[in-house]
Amino acid sequence: MASYVSGLIEGYHDLMDNKSDQRVKDWFLMSSPFPTLAICLTYVYCVKVLGPRIMANRKPFDLRNVLIAYNAFQVIFSSWLFYEACDGGWLNGYSLRCEPVDYSTTPEAMRVASGCWWYFISKFTEFFDTIFFVLRKKDKHISKLHVIHHGIMPMSVWFGVKFTPGGHSTFFGFLNTFVHIVMYSYYLLAALGPQVQKYLWWKKYITVLQMVQFVLVFVHAFQLFFIDCDYPKAFCGWIGMHAVMFYFLFSDYYKQEYNKKEARRKAAEEKKLSDAAAIKAADAAAKLTAGTTANGLYQDPGKLMQASYVDPNAPGDALRQRAFVTTS
């Protein structure tokens, strides 16, 4: 048993020291995965246990101005990361088919590696999405999808930066930063208040955009299993499986949030029509039982006239009228 544990420790150190990218080993949080893991676990504990417990007997905070500033920051940060992904590679020579990692220390290669590290840091800034939900007591927004997505991403991106900071796998960050520009722009507009929120009809399409993103990432990653490309296939599988998991999580969220909401809306409309029909029928019944004159016969309130008609075969102008009246 001791030799087995010793072998695991040696294998871990060999992986971290000899098989990782030596360019990033001294960068902040990159020497070991454990600080990032600890931060992610602390995040989950705070937003699911500690935060709601602290806020249980407190009023929600009014964070409108904070949210405006935060979302504006995220739009700017995501825009810069997207620009770096475009100008550093994906719109400047990168191949969608196969793009190996450039492990050199050229300015171009170091720019891409640095961009990957900043993308990793951005995953921690997104923790504030959930922290603000806790402080505003928006507990229903702290869904399983939300916590899993934010809790896993920093750890996943850490491995990417540690071993493959550049090349094929950065396609995910390229798409993801664009999606975040759209998403945080929506949140920024929503934070401006009701006068703007009434025009924000496109929220559900952000979820659709995110699902499209995961499909593209899956296809882009798994294609490398069918071609000859000098890129670690293990990372293609890692990224592809993340894309599959997140696709189904977001799809489930979409069904719960929007399909069920649409069903509730239709049910409410049907109930409204049913109530209107019932009111109309009640009004008609009230008029029928009120005091009226039908074909010249007076009917007192509370009496029901079952039938009344004019006999067309009556001779001359003296039309005979029959009426059958019951009293209540």
From TrEMBL:
<feature type="transmembrane region" description="Helical">
    <location>
        <begin position="205"/>
        <end position="225"/>
    </location>
</feature>
<dbReference type="Pfam" id="PF01151">
    <property type="entry name" value="ELO"/>
</dbReference>
<keyword id="KW-0276">Fatty acid metabolism</keyword>
<dbReference type="GO" id="GO:0034625">
    <property type="term" value="P:fatty acid elongation, monounsaturated fatty acid"/>
</dbReference>
<feature type="transmembrane region" description="Helical">
    <location>
        <begin position="171"/>
        <end position="193"/>
    </location>
</feature>
<dbReference type="InterPro" id="IPR002076">
    <property type="entry name" value="ELO_fam"/>
</dbReference>
<dbReference type="GO" id="GO:0005789">
    <property type="term" value="C:endoplasmic reticulum membrane"/>
</dbReference>
<dbReference type="GO" id="GO:0034626">
    <property type="term" value="P:fatty acid elongation, polyunsaturated fatty acid"/>
</dbReference>
<dbReference type="GO" id="GO:0042761">
    <property type="term" value="P:very long-chain fatty acid biosynthetic process"/>
</dbReference>
<keyword id="KW-0808">Transferase</keyword>
<comment type="similarity">
    <text>Belongs to the ELO family.</text>
</comment>
<dbReference type="GO" id="GO:0030148">
    <property type="term" value="P:sphingolipid biosynthetic process"/>
</dbReference>
<dbReference type="GO" id="GO:0019367">
    <property type="term" value="P:fatty acid elongation, saturated fatty acid"/>
</dbReference>
<keyword id="KW-1133">Transmembrane helix</keyword>
<feature type="transmembrane region" description="Helical">
    <location>
        <begin position="27"/>
        <end position="46"/>
    </location>
</feature>
<keyword id="KW-0812">Transmembrane</keyword>
<keyword id="KW-0444">Lipid biosynthesis</keyword>
<keyword id="KW-0275">Fatty acid biosynthesis</keyword>
<keyword id="KW-0472">Membrane</keyword>
<dbReference type="GO" id="GO:0009922">
    <property type="term" value="F:fatty acid elongase activity"/>
</dbReference>
<feature type="transmembrane region" description="Helical">
    <location>
        <begin position="66"/>
        <end position="83"/>
    </location>
</feature>
<keyword id="KW-0443">Lipid metabolism</keyword>
<protein>
    <recommendedName>
        <fullName>Elongation of very long chain fatty acids protein</fullName>
        <ecNumber>2.3.1.199</ecNumber>
    </recommendedName>
</protein>
<feature type="transmembrane region" description="Helical">
    <location>
        <begin position="231"/>
        <end position="250"/>
    </location>
</feature>
